[in-house]
Amino acid sequence: MINVIIFFIKKYFKSSRREWLRFDSVFMIIGIIISVATLTIALSIFEGYEQVLKKTILGVNSHIYVFLSADGNLQEKHLEELQEHFSSQEETASFAPIIITQAMAAADGRIKGSVVRGIDWQKEDLPTSYRDKVFAGSYDLSDLHSAVIGYKLAKTLNLELHDEFELISPLNSTHTPMGIKPQKKKFKIVGLYKSGMHEYDTKYIFINYKSAAEFAKMENEYTMMEIKLTSDNIERADYLAYKWREMLNHRYQITSWIHFNSNLFSLLKLEKWVIYIILSFLILIASFNVISTVTTSIIEKRQELGILKAYGASNNLLQKIFVGKTIFMAVIAVSAGQLLGMLLAKLLSWQTFFMLKGDVYFLDQINVSFNPLSWLIILTTALLIITFSSVFPLRKIANLEITDILRGRN
Predict the structure, then answer these.
(1) Are residues 219 and 284 in the same domain?
(2) Which of 55, 151, 214, 292 has a 20 to 30 A CA-CA distance from 234?
(3) Are residues 355 and 398 in the same domain?
(4) Where is average pLDDT lowest: 96-100, 209-213, 323-327?
(5) In this predicted structure, what is the pLDDT of residue 6?
(6) What is the count of structural domains for the chain?
(7) pLDDT(98) > 60
(8) Residue 237 belongs to a domain
(9) Domain limits for position 303
């Protein structure tokens, strides 16, 4: 039976009449290609956005954060205990204390809220990719008055490399006979920082941790300790945070990047699959052309079908011939649609005419990623819809009467 089905499928495509180039067949194929390409573009953009956002967050921030459970900051005695603990944990790649404070950056009458991060920039294995994100100037913070700032923050303040700006901190004000005096300190830009994430590039200022301690009045104190995990343990960060919290008898508040970003990534996954379901209806709409094409083909081939029935061909065999022909065309159309979708998605990621609003979408540029699983899901969904659509008109074959066909009756 399979050989017979293959014979008729080959005959259909090799026929001199070129039936597969008829308007209804071409229209069906184009509809499938466009709908599949649209679905492929949407999913690849969502996956690319999710991957780049995740990579950016994990590049700029560490994987686990350790604070003191009680009020106050980490002291030297706490650091010694934490260093001893994390040095013995095989899941730990690196760790370092950090000072974080909020301040206002001011220059030439312009002012902008910022996040100041005091880091030990000389540490070889920093928990974050600070050095890799400095794209202009130097990441050297040996001078206590040097700073690396986000390039968008520099643009907002109309600053360039080697320009000076002032950090102002009302939080660390001092009381004087003349009233409250905010903490102020001047810094010189030695490098520009670009993470690719709008929130960081418009706020982050990196300075030497000694300068940060003096500015924030945190001598021999640290805001928290950052922990970088080995690559195979990044997704286990939540579990490890809970495990280490138990091991340290809850003396420290230990949280992970998953805890801080779980709502965001859960929302992205939900949106991706909602978009998938909605755009799958495009394939369903395109499948109406499949019903029309198969129905038209059956009507036009009534005489041939009648002759085959007269020679003993069963309704089941004739139906499988039509289904096989439709599936063969569908595989070609769906594959072409996926390739077209990948190409258009790549072009969208390369173009610079249409950019995302970083303050809304976190990232400025469209990014795409092609997941083999998503490719397989699209292929399976499209083929199932098209196959079911081709089955509906096949009842007409069973209703064909051989005698009426051979006598030329309708």
Answers:
(1) no
(2) 151
(3) yes
(4) 323-327
(5) 57
(6) 2
(7) yes
(8) no
(9) 2-57+264-406
- How far apart are the C-alpha atoms of 196 and 121, rounded to whole Å? 21
How distant is the alpha carbon of residue 6 from its chain centre? 42
> Which pLDDT value is given to residue 118?
92
Contact indicator for 377, 283 with CB cutoff of 8 Å = no
Task: Using the 3D structure, point to which of 232, 253, 275 is the last residue of a domain.
Answer: 232
pLDDT tens digits, 166-215:
998 876 655 555 546 677 889 999 999 998 888 889 999 999 999 998 88
pLDDT in tens, 34-86: 999 999 998 888 888 888 888 888 888 889 999 987 778 888 888 889 999 99
Angle at 33 between CA 31 and CA 34, to 5 degrees: 65
Angstrom CA distances, 156 to 12, 160, 187, stand at 66, 11, 16
Residues 294 and 398 in one domain: yes
Three state DSSP letters for the chain: CHHHHHHHHHHHHHCCCCHHHCHHHHHHHHHHHHHHHHHHHHHHHHHHHHHHHHHHHHHHCCCEEEEECCCCCECHHHHHHHHHHHHCCCCEEEEEEEEEEEEEEEECCEEEEEEEEEECCCCCCCCCCHHHHEEEECCCCCCCCEEEEEHHHHHHCCCCCCCEEEEEEEEEEEEECCEEEEEEEEEEEEEEECCCEHHHHCCEEEEEHHHHHHHCCCCCCECEEEEEECHHHHHHHHHHHHHHHHHCCCCEEEEEHHHHHHHHHHHHHHHHHHHHHHHHHHHHHHHHHHHHHHHHHHHHCHHHHHHHHHCCCCHHHHHHHHHHHHHHHHHHHHHHHHHHHHHHHHHHHHCCCCCCCHHHHCECCCCCCCCHHHHHHHHHHHHHHHHHHHHHHHHHHHHCCHHHHHCCCC
What pTM was estimated for this model as a whole? 0.75
Residue 113 near residue 264 (C-beta atoms within 8 A): no
Residue 155 lies in a domain: yes
